[in-house]
Amino acid sequence: MNICIYCGSSTGFRNEFVELAEEFGEMMAKAGHRLIYGGSSLGIMGALANSVMKHKGEVIGVIPEKLFKKEVAHRGITKLITVDDMHQRKSVMAGMADAFIAFPGGFGTLEELFEIITWNQIGIFKKPVTIFNPNGFYNSLIEMIEHASHSGFIKPENMSIFNVAETLEECIQLSLKQP
To answer: How many domains does the chain have?
Structure first.
């Protein structure tokens, strides 16, 4: 299975997110899942990719040309695909992925998460989407989505497009579940 992970190109202020990424990378590699991600060697992205590689797994990174140097493209992974822009990056990653997981991250992670939820909503494809919520990282975001639903902007049936995982094990289980 190809699992696309959206996550930060920085580490944030809590080392636990890096540790969780490293642990998840090991879990993925041992289970035979391939990592599809944004191609950076930095932050949570780099920690995750390094862990998958360390444990003999496969990693495919997709990075736009303009970010190749800025994000310090990871040259120690199975395959690094360079694309023209962010739109192409997201399209290539989505096309390769069987499931998506959003780890903690910033604007880029959130933008990718919402785009993939929207693609599921409008029927471009039906693939599992999981929000990994360690120690409540995404609680406020989930509350905002629920508020939008209660306010009539998100149909109740569309709330099932994504799942929320509190543990790494749940991330794997929910990735295997067909929407």
So the answer is: 1
- The residue written with tokens 């035979």 in the block is 32
CATH of the domain at 134: 3.40.50.450
How far apart, in whole angstroms, are the C-alpha atoms of residue 138 and residue 116? Answer: 17
CB neighbourhood size of 154 (10 A) = 17
Output phi, psi for 157, to 5 deg.
Answer: -70, -25
Enter the tokens of residue 42: 């930095």
pLDDT tens per residue across span 101-148 = 999 999 999 999 999 999 999 999 999 999 999 999 999 999 999 999
Please answer whether residues 152 and 143 qualify as being in contact, where contact means their C-beta atoms are separated by less than 8 angstroms. Answer: no
- Match 């599992």 to its residue by tokens: 128
Q: What range does the domain containing 38 cover?
A: 2-176
